[in-house]
Design goal:
CATH topology: Protein Transport Mog1p, Chain A
Largest sheet: 7 strands, antiparallel
Strand content: 25-35%
Number of helices: 9
Helix content: 25-40%
CATH class: Alpha Beta
Strand order of the largest sheet: 3-4-5-9-8-7-6
């Protein structure tokens, strides 16, 4: 084989490798709520590319049964944006919204307006209690992270806690970030949860999701 032909083959092989690298699936996908709805502002975060994203219409359909509960219906009516993901091989919104313990990470994010009565009572304690009433569970819940967070004029809390959701169920760990808008008229929520064993195994991935959570208010 001539030296020129050998160099040509090497060049073609290098080009093929570069093409494969550039055509490979990206590492992350992005969720975003952009200005145009009320309240205005942009929310975005990233999740691993392999995690399944649920279409908005599927999320709404899964929540239809909640309308029988007046409190749940009120919250849904005030929700202006929401997004959900499941890392399981067979993803299901039951994992996202159910009371059981998912064995793979699930993600739920939302943005909803606050009613005047809620706005008056908006405190750090209220933000912590958005998913689970931490203030009343006492020793039944193990809180490992409880931090005050700020992004510009937006303030909030980041809590990580574990507890037994049901008798005989596996312990669940919830990584929850809640922000109150600068005008105290909206609340931003990001929740990542799965069994405590799962959380430990996927800690790095979950940390990247949570740390990417960004709010930019107009």
């Amino acid at each position: 084989m001539s030296r020129a032909r050998a160099l040509s083959i090497v060049a073609v092989a290098a080009l093929a490798v570069a093409c494969l690298a550039s055509c490979a699936s990206p590492d992350f996908k992005y969720a975003a709520q952009r200005p145009g709805s009320v309240p205005a502002g942009t929310v975005y975060f990233k999740v691993p590319w392999s995690w399944t994203e649920f279409p908005a219409e599927q999320i709404v359909k899964a929540q239809q049964g909640w309308s029988a509960d007046s409190t749940a219906k009120t919250l849904l009516d005030a929700t202006t944006w929401q997004s959900a993901y499941d890392a399981a091989p067979q993803p299901s919104l039951t994992d996202v919204f159910g009371t059981g313990t998912p064995e793979a990470p699930v993600v739920y994010a939302s943005l909803r307006s606050l009613y005047s009565a809620e706005s008056d009572a908006a405190t750090s304690a209220a933000l912590r209690d958005m998913v689970v009433p931490l203030s009343t569970l006492g020793t039944a819940v193990n809180v490992t992270t409880d931090d005050v967070m700020t992004q510009g004029k937006v303030t909030g809390v980041h809590v990580v806690y574990s507890y037994l959701p049901l008798p005989g169920a596996a312990e669940i760990t919830i990584d929850q970030t809640s922000y109150l808008s600068a005008e105290k008229d909206a609340v931003y929520l990001l929740v990542v949860r799965c069994s405590t064993t799962c959380y430990a195994a996927h800690r790095d991935e979950i940390s990247r999701v949570v740390s990417s959570y960004t709010i930019q208010e107009d």
